[in-house]
Every structure is written in structure tokens, then in C-alpha cells.
Design a protein that fits this description.
The protein is 34% helix and 26% strand. The chain is α+β, with helices and mostly antiparallel strands. The chain folds into 2 domains: 91 residues, no CATH class; 124 residues, 2-Layer Sandwich (GMP Synthetase, Chain A, domain 3). The strands form 2 sheets. It has a 5-stranded mixed beta sheet. A 4-stranded mixed beta sheet has the order 1-2-3-4.
Length: 229
């Protein structure tokens, strides 16, 4: 499973060209792209190709000297971009080790996530920013409902002990549109965080972020316990 998007892949062997159709979870990232906005397209495609599920594919394209045609259906007029083998090599950071790619991917993913903040999660809960510090990825959530914050303070320890981190298991106001398997952490999957040797902190606050409630998951808990790969 790819963070942030659903990806469909194909290949035209006669042309020596791969195809990729990308549907982002939040189409805002491509809505305003112009037909000449190759810079934004490079960032988005690089983010996807650095993901551990697509790295081998990017490597195969480079070594087979194949191009890659990428389509963004949610963009204005379904923007399409053609990437040469050299451009694929550039954006996928071809040649880096797996460990280096894990770190580079997480760095790009956090930058991408911050582009979409503040993000309204419904019923007075807003994702305000994401920080990639030395040991953890920290998601900041502002909670307007005082009773919800009080409940988080009381239940923080029991939340830490749960086997998953679904929104419906958090003592927060629920949105009618919220799905049962929506994760409050956002779109970076815990396994992506763990692979970069980081833990995860969900930081909830009402007024000042200094007066917060932290729900913490270690690197090993992100990988083994959260059940989201």
C-alpha cells in the first residue's frame, strides 16, 4: 500500500515506456497544476518512487532505459508528464541504499504532509503540522472541544496500550464522514516511519502546544503493533 495515493501501473514494451496513473487521497495537491509544472510533478513522482513498494520498479525502469508516462486524473484536464530514464534516476534517488532511501522518503513525506496542513479532520479537530525530529515523527492536532481534551488527558495511558491507533478508538468528537479505519496519524503509514528508525508521537493540544497530551509509539510499536503496513 502506498502512502497518500492509489497507483495503477502498466507498460508498453513496444515503446519502452511505463505508465503510472496516480489518484491522490487529497486531490488538492494536483488540482492547480499547469501543463508545464514539471517541477511539482517531479516532487510528486519522486515521493512515490522512493516508497519501498515502488523502489524496485523505479530501478527496473532506469536499468532497462525505459521512460515513464505519469497521469494525474484529478488535475485540470488530466495532466500527463513524461519522465526520461535520467529523470526517473534523479527523482527516485537511484543508487542510494535502502536505509538512505527510507530516510529520504520520510523527509519528503513529511514535507508533503505539511503542504496540506492545516487539515480539518471534522468536529473541531485540525491537523496543524508534522515535525520530523531526530527520534520521532510528531503530528500536531488542535482540539477545540475542551471535554474531548479532558478525556484525552484521562485516557492517554490506555490509548498508548491499545493495539491500533484508529480514529474511532480515540476519545475525540467523530465526524459523520469519518471512516472506521481512518487513522488519526495522517497519511504517512507507521511502517514508513519505523523503516526510517523513528517513533511516532500524536500531540493533541487545545490552546498552546506546550499544554499537550502526547500519545507515543516506539519504532518497534510502529512496525509490529499498529497493524498498518
Amino acid at each position: 500500500m502506498i502512502d497518500f495515493a492509489t497507483v495503477s501501473l502498466g507498460c508498453d514494451y513496444a515503446k519502452g515506456e511505463g505508465t503510472m496513473t496516480v489518484h491522490f487521497d487529497d486531490p488538492r495537491v494536483v488540482k492547480s497544476m499547469s501543463a508545464n509544472d514539471k517541477k511539482t510533478a517531479k516532487k510528486l513522482v519522486g515521493l512515490l518512487l522512493m516508497h519501498y513498494d515502488l523502489r524496485a520498479l523505479a530501478k527496473d525502469f532506469v536499468e532497462a532505459n525505459y521512460s515513464l508516462r505519469v497521469n494525474f486524473p484529478e488535475s485540470n484536464n488530466e495532466k500527463e508528464f513524461l519522465f526520461t530514464p535520467e529523470e526517473i534516476k534523479e527523482v527516485s534517488k537511484y543508487g542510494l541504499s535502502e536505509e538512505e532511501l527510507d530516510r529520504e522518503y520520510l523527509k519528503a513525506a513529511v514535507e508533503f504532509e505539511n503542504q496540506l496542513c492545516p487539515r480539518d479532520l471534522g468536529n473541531g479537530v485540525t491537523a496543524t503540522k508534522v515535525v520530523n525530529d531526530k527520534k520521532n515523527v510528531v503530528y500536531y492536532f488542535q482540539v477545540k472541544n475542551k471535554a474531548a481534551m479532558d478525556s484525552l488527558r484521562v485516557n492517554a495511558d490506555s490509548i498508548n496500550a491499545q493495539t491500533s491507533m484508529r480514529v474511532d478508538q480515540m476519545p475525540l468528537p467523530k465526524s459523520d464522514s469519518q471512516k472506521e479505519n481512518d487513522y488519526v496519524s495522517g497519511r504517512i503509514r507507521p511502517n514508513s516511519i519505523s523503516r526510517a528508525q523513528k517513533g511516532l508521537i500524536l500531540r493533541f493540544y487545545s490552546g498552546s502546544p506546550k499544554k499537550c497530551v502526547d500519545i507515543k509509539y516506539t519504532k518497534d510499536e510502529c512496525y509490529c503493533r499498529l497493524g498498518w503496513y
